[in-house]
UniProtKB/TrEMBL annotation:
Its main location: cytoplasm. It comes from Methylacidiphilum caldifontis. Catalyzes the attachment of tryptophan to tRNA(Trp). A motif ('KMSKS' region) lies at residues 190-194. One of its GO terms (cellular component) is cytosol. InterPro entries: aa-tRNA-synth_I_CS (IPR001412), aa-tRNA-synth_Ic (IPR002305), Rossmann-like_a/b/a_fold (IPR014729), Trp-tRNA-ligase (IPR002306), Trp-tRNA-ligase_bac-type (IPR024109), Trp-tRNA_synthetase (IPR050203). CDD domains: TrpRS_core (cd00806). It is found in: Cytoplasm. GO terms for molecular function: ATP binding; tryptophan-tRNA ligase activity. This is Tryptophan--tRNA ligase. The gene is trpS.
Amino acid sequence: LKRVLSGIQPSGHLHIGNYFGMIKRAIEWQDKAQTLYFIADYHALTSIKDPQNLRQYVRKIAMAFLACGLDPIKSIFFRQSSIPEVHELAWILASITPFGLLERSHSFKDKIAKGLSPTLALFSYPVLMSADILLYQSEIIPVGQDQKQHLEIARDIAQKFNNTYGEVFRIPEPDIQEEVAVIPGIDGQKMSKSYNNTLEIFGDPQEFKRKVMSIKTDSTPIAAPKPIQGSILASLYKLVAQPSEYEEFIESMKKGGQGYAYYKKLLLEKLNAYFKPIRERYKELECNPGYVDEVLADGAYRARLISQETIRKVRQAVGLLD
Ligand code: TYM
């Protein structure tokens, strides 16, 4: 069985970009591979400085992932910070990581541009991420397009390590699917918390509706045909509708006769129908905090069996162990 791994930062609510870009596909892997999924709480420290928020977000993202269909028997589901070996590995990897490799990180530059403080942790973010991946000898990493460069860095670091010390690591492959690689937000840019353009799955329903109704469109008159190319409405509708329903939707837009509000309402209904069972499971999980704790504790135990085996090999390879 292939080993599949991915992580998500607990940096607020789950949005539909996370869902279609990563979570949904991660869940599909459960029946075909050995899957490990984790909550990247160490990574979140680069942006969240309020301990109460961090605790709350970790819990929310855990419930969200479970509600979306993560099966804690099939998958190993854990918090990154439950596994101390990840830091030992990150240090060892940092010792062979060229500074220039990290200086080229788009994500670092973007985050600085958006006002995050340029800490050492933010700079070495991709090294910790490489450690996440390599510690579990992961082969396939389902992610959205924005993680592509991080995956390239992880591959470079793994290769550099193997060349320096002998074959220890498997070389991971990104699993990026073109149609869902970049889910647009309500303004047409990549959906992202830092652009404030997200549709949050488990947020307030009125707010969700308000945001869907404010999806950016052009000023085509009601009667006129609507452009499909670049239409955020059509892209989002496609994610949640049957192919035949999507065809009808775009045929109707091409024909004209309806204003954008009509299509936004159709989209809202479809989104709500799609996420209804997931939202219901989330509500149930909210009533059962003990269950979420148990799942994460069990996941940490199983993840640690793998991490300890890898770290022993790594220590041996670099000369920290006789
Ligand atoms: P994060 O928490 O920003 O996002 C989680 C996943 O959601 C994907 N995603 C999107 N996909 C398509 N369209 C969008 N608009 C969109 N927005 C977010 C992201 O690509 C990601 O797959 N660095 C990672 C967390 C991480 C990790 C890892 C991932 C830490 N260690 C090891 C894989 C392997 C991050 O911040 O993702």
